[in-house]
Amino acid sequence: MQQSRQDIRSHVRTLRQKLTPQFQQSAAEQLVKQCVTSQAFIDSQHIALYLSNDGELDTAPLIQALWLQGKSLYLPVLHPFAKGQLLFLHYTPQSTMVDNCFGIAEPKLDQRAIIPAQQLDLICTPLVAFDSQCQRLGMGGGYYDRTLSRWFATGVGAKPLGLAHDCQRVDNIPIEPWDIPLPQIITPTHIWQR
């Protein structure tokens, strides 16, 4: 019998939260090696990432490595007026950070730092679970599905890419009509292609 989306979210989040700090650090270091040698990152200058939360694979070492390579990085910010939408703001070591309504740090809103999503080269998405077909299951808010819908419909704009722990892979994600599959998901030990 197929697990419900909420059961999968609950199970995988529990697995992820049980990972030790040492395991998390090692996985983050392995992720850097995977990403900086992948063609998607090599070919991209303007990259949207996210700050890890709730046991997600730590993106801080990857952010540092990409800054050292001279890449321009951006973080998602909850749109203050368009409910369920994301903005992407330029992110530097000097960025002023604030916590959003979910308690996740994001750059303080500044119109001068916004980049339209279609001008990004790569959008790295968080996810709760994924399958070998690169179907992504998020937290359920639909923020990234809405953000990626234009790319999915046209193939134009920023390429999406998922980042996850290996333990977040499940046999099958129950798909809904609004779900946007990813062309690629990178874990510390594997690169999954759609």
From TrEMBL:
This is 5-formyltetrahydrofolate cyclo-ligase. ATP binds at residues 5-9, 136-144. Its cofactor is Mg(2+). It comes from Vibrio palustris. Signal peptide: none annotated. InterPro entries: FTHF_cligase, FTHF_cligase-like_sf, NagB/RpiA_transferase-like. Coiled coil: none annotated. Keywords: ATP-binding, Ligase, Magnesium, Metal-binding, Nucleotide-binding. It holds the Pfam family 5-FTHF_cyc-lig. The lineage of its organism: Bacteria, Pseudomonadati, Pseudomonadota, Gammaproteobacteria, Vibrionales.
